[in-house]
Amino acid sequence: MSFSDLETMSLNDFIDRNKGDDGTLWFFQHIPKTAGSSFSAELAKHSGPYFNIFIDYEDRDTPYGDAFAAATARFLSSAETRRFRSASGHLSIDLVERIREAHPETRVVTFLREPQARVISDYRYQRTPAHPPYRDFIERYPTVESYVEAPRNQNSMARYLLGDAASEMSDDEIRDRVGQRHDFIGLLEMYPMSFNIIFRLIGVDGLWPQEHKRKTVASEVNKVEVTPALSEMIRHHNQKDFVLYEHVREVLLSHRDDFRTTQAAAV
Question: What is the pTM assigned to this prediction?
Fold first, then answer.
C-alpha cells in the first residue's frame, strides 16, 4: 500500500487496509517548516517509544549529509536493542530507505506545505536564534531573494520525497512518482484531517492536534515583504514543489467530503 492508492480507493478502504500493527515502525520524514515539530511531539506522546533523529547544527566540520547519515546509523544501532514504535528526522529519502531496509515493517509519512509559505517560513526561521547557525545563515543570505536564488534551497519538498533527481523530472514524472514511497502524505493546510488520518492508520482513532511547537518569532531581522516579484521568483525556482503540492492537494480534496461525513457520523 502507498499514498498513491488513494487515487483509486476510498478513504475508509485505504485506512482499513493500510493500518499498522504492534510491530509497525512509523517514521515521520520531517520536511522543515511543515508543522513537523508539532507533529513529532504528538507522535512521541501517542506512539512511543519514540526516537528523534537529530544532528548538532553547530558542528561546522561535518557536512549535513554525513551528519544525518551518522545520526541514522545511531538510530539503527539503538533499534537493535529496543523496539521503537515511531521516529522522525530531517532525513533524505535515501536515508529513509536505509531504515526501511533494516526494518521492512516501517511505514513512512510526511507533511507538505504550500510552497511559497514554506520557503518564506524557512527563510524567516533560519534567521532567528532558534536555528543555532543563524548568524552564518544571515551572512550567507542577506536577503530573501538571495536565499530563493540559491539552488540548494530550491524544490526542497520534491527532493525530500523523490531525491535529488526530482529537479530533472518532468511534471508528469513528479505526479506519477509522488506517493509511491510514502504511506501517507498530509498537508499543513489540511492539518486536522491529515493528522487524524495518520493516527487512524497508527491505530489511534478520534485524535486531533493539540501541540503547536516552534512558532517563528517575528522581528525586523526576519521580516519579509511578499511582493508580486518575490512570489514569481519563488514559483519560478520551485516549480517541482508546486506540481508536487498541487497533486497531493487534489488527492486529499477528493476525499475531504467522505472524511467529513465519517467524522460527523462518529459524533
Answer: 0.94
